[in-house]
Specification:
By secondary structure, this protein is of the alpha/beta class. The protein folds into 2 domains: 3-103 and 211-250, D-Maltodextrin-Binding Protein, domain 2; 106-207, Periplasmic binding protein-like II (D-Maltodextrin-Binding Protein, domain 2, 3-Layer(aba) Sandwich). Helix content is 43%, strand content 23%. Strands 2-1-3-10-4-11 form a 6-stranded mixed β-sheet. A 5-stranded mixed β-sheet has the order 7-6-8-5-9. α1 crosses α2 and α2 (37-51) packs antiparallel against α11. The protein starts with a helix and ends with a strand.
Amino acid sequence: MNSTSIAASLFGLAMALAPGAALHAAELKVLAGGSLTGPLNALAPQFERASGHKLTIQFDSTPNLIKQATSEPFDVAVVPVDVFKNADAKAKFVAGPTIDIARVGYSVAVKAGAAKPDIGTPAAFKEALLKAPSIAFLPESAVGAYILKVFDRLGIAEAMKAKTKVAATPSAIAPMVAKGEADLGIFLTNVLTAPGVDIAGPFPGDLQQDLVFTASIAAASGNAAAAKALIDYLKSPEAKAVIVAKGMTAG
């Protein structure tokens, strides 16, 4: 989308929100999956300019997002669908279906210029994982939980424990590989698409799946209209274009 189209879209959004935004500008606390850092950091300023609302975004892993949703006030969340599998967390949101915002699959990354292992089949993927001296990912997350399930399916869960280099955040995985601190990085494709690393390939066959990021409004939010405006914006054509540009599939 060119700058003229984006400007026109933002103008339309501003006109739609103006009556409420001018009188009731809100400060929204947003809970978000760490893997959405790129898209939401790009979209937040556009939404703030168009709506008059202010966003404070807390990016974190699924276990921590569940803790925050159940213990701290917030207005809206754009989080891995796994958050809503926790009954206590789900109870903190308005009743009804959530709204899917983005989805992305899993890949393996190597240091830029390094030989890419064959991971085209589950058997080749297993062999590549066993041969790698070290692997970086974030176990304590929805993504990490699925990766651990894949290790278990391949029958290498115990072998992988000694190889695992735990990243502090999703965004730390690619730099660990780029610096040679880990031989492979395993995570969501958009997170691994970063300077200093190359994508070796996606998870093969039925080991591949999409992680869905979905949105809902906090039941206790005093800014429900502004929260809904944010979700509507994240479903707009201009927001979808940014999500795709950041390596994810919109919706």
